[in-house]
Amino acid sequence: MNDGAPHDDGPHRAAPRGGAPDGAPLLSVRDLRVTLRGRGRSTVPAVRGLSFDVHPGEVVALVGESGAGKSLTARAVLGLAPYGAAVTGSVLLGGRELVGAPPSVLRSVRGRRMSLVPQDALTVLSPVHTVGGQIARAVRSVRGTGRAQTWQRAVDALDRVGIPDAARRAHAYPHEFSGGMRQRAVVAMATVNRPDVVFADEPTTALDPVMQARVLELLCGLREETGTAVVLITHDLGVVGGHADRVVVVYAGRHVESGPVDRVLTDPRAPYTAGLLAALPPRDAADRRLPAIAGAPPSPGSLPGGCSFAPRCPLAEARCRADEPAPVVAGEPGRLVSCHRWRDLPDPASSLFAVAP
Ligand SMILES: Nc1ncnc2c1ncn2[C@@H]1O[C@H](COP(=O)(O)OP(=O)(O)OP(=O)(O)O)[C@@H](O)[C@H]1O
């Protein structure tokens, strides 16, 4: 199924890999919908028609508040949607359709072609096996290499993510690693088989700011080293600049705005993006009050009619409450916005949002 939304073209920086012809997206997600089971016989539309592309070696950020459907999107793309969820739309990886593909195909893709650094990454590591042993098992799951070579791959992966003295540390247990080292070990595990795309779901939330920056640099640096593309999932638009090439802003399971990160961050087209940007703390003002978007996102079980952001949007008018906007090209190639009033944003767009009382 395809909603006919304009495609969100992005750059392609690395050599083509993963079966994508030159210039074609490696991963193409179209009209992805994830519908969960609600109470009784009800259904809950948690992801509602998301479309985005990932090109080889590209870093794409999926940004939105808690509950926007970011994690479910990643899980659905990887064939890991929760039990009972209905997934429709299209997920093409190197031209191969994954929605509806048999579990054996999805298993062969995971780890080898696509991998996930999950939100609760620190629980991924088993406390009773060495870190190197767990990474070696991930290698064995996709390759039939010999024991010594497999172990060496695990050590190299730990070395690549900056674990000092990796050959020795590979024999350590997770509790012998600091939180930051464990987080890096999980990144090593997700990247050891050099997948085409890594989904990194809030990979830095448990870390201090210095370690956050290191892990992001590490993940996003993978494209230079291995050509791996990264889908960076975050609620923090602040971490996106400097790390991602393109950003897809999501609200209540729907596309809000997408485009090159430098353009979206400096000149947002959607009121919601403007609100997220207005709420970012400036570097110079520790004590200054920041504007906040009034209200909270709707729960997917009780969405308002029309645009889901309308109840919180200072620009909302009657048509916003009646019709859900579809993505349209927003004045520049490669930029899409799903907002009836994108042409009416003030300059600066952040002035739409007042300082919180
Ligand atoms: N297994 C599940 N069963 C029921 N509801 C779920 C399940 N997983 C997610 N949801 C619901 O689907 C919606 C989207 O969840 P999701 O975890 O994708 O959001 P998110 O944008 O990743 O948020 P966060 O940043 O907090 O992780 C939320 O309302 C959530 O409560």
UniProtKB/TrEMBL annotation:
<dbReference type="Pfam" id="PF08352">
    <property type="entry name" value="oligo_HPY"/>
</dbReference>
<protein>
    <submittedName>
        <fullName>ABC transporter ATP-binding protein</fullName>
    </submittedName>
</protein>
<feature type="compositionally biased region" description="Low complexity">
    <location>
        <begin position="16"/>
        <end position="25"/>
    </location>
</feature>
<dbReference type="GO" id="GO:0005524">
    <property type="term" value="F:ATP binding"/>
</dbReference>
<feature type="domain" description="ABC transporter">
    <location>
        <begin position="27"/>
        <end position="277"/>
    </location>
</feature>
<feature type="compositionally biased region" description="Basic and acidic residues">
    <location>
        <begin position="1"/>
        <end position="12"/>
    </location>
</feature>
<comment type="similarity">
    <text>Belongs to the ABC transporter superfamily.</text>
</comment>
<keyword id="KW-0813">Transport</keyword>
<dbReference type="InterPro" id="IPR013563">
    <property type="entry name" value="Oligopep_ABC_C"/>
</dbReference>
<keyword id="KW-1003">Cell membrane</keyword>
<keyword id="KW-0547">Nucleotide-binding</keyword>
<dbReference type="InterPro" id="IPR027417">
    <property type="entry name" value="P-loop_NTPase"/>
</dbReference>
<keyword id="KW-0472">Membrane</keyword>
<dbReference type="InterPro" id="IPR003439">
    <property type="entry name" value="ABC_transporter-like_ATP-bd"/>
</dbReference>
<dbReference type="InterPro" id="IPR050388">
    <property type="entry name" value="ABC_Ni/Peptide_Import"/>
</dbReference>
<keyword id="KW-0067">ATP-binding</keyword>
<dbReference type="InterPro" id="IPR017871">
    <property type="entry name" value="ABC_transporter-like_CS"/>
</dbReference>
<dbReference type="InterPro" id="IPR003593">
    <property type="entry name" value="AAA+_ATPase"/>
</dbReference>
<feature type="region of interest" description="Disordered">
    <location>
        <begin position="1"/>
        <end position="26"/>
    </location>
</feature>
<dbReference type="Pfam" id="PF00005">
    <property type="entry name" value="ABC_tran"/>
</dbReference>
